[in-house]
Amino acid sequence: MKGKSYLVTGASRGVGLCLVQQLAQKEGKPLVFAAARSPEKYAELQDLEKEHKQVHVVRLDLTDVETIKAAAGEVNQILMTKGHDGLDFLIQDAGTSEDLVPPLDTPDDMLKLVFTTNAVGPIWVYKYFRPLVQRSQLKTMVFFASNFGSLTLASEPLRNPEKSTPLDATQIAYKASKAAVNMETIIIARDARDEGFTVISMHPGVADTDMGSRPQEVVEEMKPEVSPEETARLQIQLYDKLTTEDNGKFLDYKGNKLPW
Ligand SMILES: NC(=O)c1ccc[n+]([C@@H]2O[C@H](COP(=O)([O-])OP(=O)(O)OC[C@H]3O[C@@H](n4cnc5c(N)ncnc54)[C@H](OP(=O)(O)O)[C@@H]3O)[C@@H](O)[C@H]2O)c1
């Protein structure tokens, strides 16, 4: 029997790199597709591909739909060549964020870039990779949202001003685009439910990465809660346990349910 197959976007650094590094070591030798927009810039990714013959690096830029179509074609070809029915896990980790500034200080082109990357790109990835996932037994898709994309949590300081911090009115593009990701999960979970897909939104925790270290620049207490290695380890365990009962849930890396 063939091992499982995984594709992780944003595999060049941060949580995405830890995911592909750990998946490459996982028992059962899964087939791992490490998707990055500029793989040539990252020696660690190239080394991973050289060290593990079941790891394949593919180019995928969330802002460029042609690269997404090409990546889907390349992954499809490799799956078929290696005798896999389909792609078991589509893990959409890649994302970007703007500076921690108020809405009016966010540059116009940054608003567009963050929305395209975080909210439009994942829909394109769903569209062009869906047929590959559809052919697998496990049919699992993970959309990386954030606790910052929860409307319930974000509106808490409006209800309880004593819970307010200087972070609340910053990063409008990042937070709104992650709220959009949550809506995408809900719609896609419904769209794909009858074919046996499991589609979830993931909050990886405030992880000690380039992105996750930034809020503490504004609010000291916002220190990262988890290392990228640990969140990746717990996520991989969680993904192994997901069933169709979990379709349409918003979970954190420990498997706790979060409010939309
Ligand atoms: N870290 C946290 O505390 C935290 C909390 C909540 C949610 N998240 C979410 O978790 C995910 C991973 O976060 P992280 O902390 O690992 O972030 P990170 O270290 O900043 O890494 C971001 C990754 O996304 C890739 N990326 C950015 N723009 C892209 C594009 N246009 N096309 C393809 N890839 C692109 C980056 O590639 P390059 O190397 O080429 O730039 C990099 O691999 C993100 O979706 C983030 O929003 C993180």
TrEMBL record:
What sequence ranges are listed for the domain Ketoreductase? Answer: 4-209
Q: Organism classification, top ranks?
A: Eukaryota, Viridiplantae, Chlorophyta, core chlorophytes, Trebouxiophyceae
Q: What is this protein called?
A: Ketoreductase domain-containing protein
Which GO terms of the molecular function aspect are on file? oxidoreductase activity, acting on the CH-OH group of donors, NAD or NADP as acceptor
InterPro entries membership: KR_dom (IPR057326), NAD(P)-bd_dom_sf (IPR036291), SDR_enzymes (IPR052184), SDR_fam (IPR002347)
Pfam families listed in its UniProt record? adh_short
